[in-house]
Predict the structure.
Amino acid sequence: MKKIIFALLIIHYFPIRRLIGILLLSTLFITNCYAQWQGDVRLTNDTFYSYTSDNNAWCIASNENFVHVVWSNQWSSYSQIYYKHSTNGGVNWGEDMRLINNSVNSYSPATAVSGQSVHVVWSDQRTAYQGIYYKSSTDGGANWGADLRLTYDNSDSYYPSIAVSGQNVHVVWQEKIGSNNYEVYYVRSTNGGVNWDYVNRLTNNLAYSGEASIAVSGQMVNVVWHDARDGNYEIYAKHSQDGGASWGADSRLTNNSAYSYSPSIAMSGQIVHVVWEDYRDGNFEIYYKRSTDGGNSWGADTRLTDNSAASEGPSISVSGQLVHIVWHDYRDGHTEIYYKRSTDGGFNWEADTRLTNKTSYSTNPSVSASAQSVHVVWFDDRDVRTEIYYKLNPTGNITGINSINSKVPEEYSLSQNYPNPFNPVTKIRFDIPSNVKRQTANVKLIVYDILGQEITTLVNEQLQPGTYEVTFDGSNLPSGVYFYRILSGDFSDIKKLLLVK
């Protein structure tokens, strides 16, 4: 009934010929809005080989318009860690920055961001044992602090993964125990990486436990990894409800006679999303699983890919109800990067989208979503040697504006967000009244930090009279006070919202 009333209102305001044109344009806009993947961008151009990490750690992180990428470069006879960033949402990029400078191999970098703080971890051979090292920037990647060694055991450590929430930084990795066993280890900082707690061993069995991935939402921390304790590799999970101070028991997420490898994890509030590659179908396919209670219990496995070739190396990013996944896929006779999205928190999934189309080797993708954009990075040998490539969808992370009431309001209004305080998602409602001079109104809804700096623009478009609701996701922002302001014609209003993680 509401849809009928709304349609009648539109017809009342517009002649039928104009209405048909508007509907066609709207359909084209909606279709293109979510498919607006731009061309491949080559980020490196070196005489040596460049690689994204070969495990499931993220080589890309984003926060509003800031995008950060890390990779390893086979510089001369050894590998070093490099960094690059964009300050305008991936449109333009700064120069390559070499983060470390020593004559040993450094590889498998991972990065995470919170506000202007950028955190990087990697594996390094500068001592007798392979160790995990850390470095951070507090000004958006312009300047960097000193290297900090996080591991001091007389054993080798590999494949770090990092997650951050405000000042809390969490790192996991795999460490060699004995001659051929690996376990998952964890360490945290509660002051932005300045100081670190004691290292905590998360697994303890005689089989291989490795390629861990970590995610955080406020005080909830979740870790997943693949584990051979059951005779074949299965996906396991572990979670903490107090910011990593203590941990619950291991949870086995998969249970089949085939190999399950390389999980990647992301969180939004209490919702935890996990993807991995699984051989139960006779070739590797991408599978998905989610928890709605912070990792205490888990739903059923969902198969996301279905083809006769291998689909491997998934990476996941989440923004409210939007879940983004990338992986490399052999269905085209060579490896290409593919993408898939859910707009309802993992219940339903759109069709696979092929992001690359070259007869080259495109592999090891990472994905990050923030503001309205989705960012993907991978390494590619289309230029003979391997280089780092990047792709942007500037509208792929739009949660959308929902019209929630067919009654035309009598005046403008901006409601208080709900819930408030929130973590990390909240909703903002506003009313747009009718105007005898025009049938639509240009509406802007902007979020600012406490210093008055613009964080994001939630709405900037012509809207029909009505009541609307928009979702704001603060996953990539630190806890604190923020403001949101509406502007439409002569009307302006501002309200405060509180993000508590």
About this structure: The longest strand covers residues 373-383. Helices lie at 2-13, 16-33.
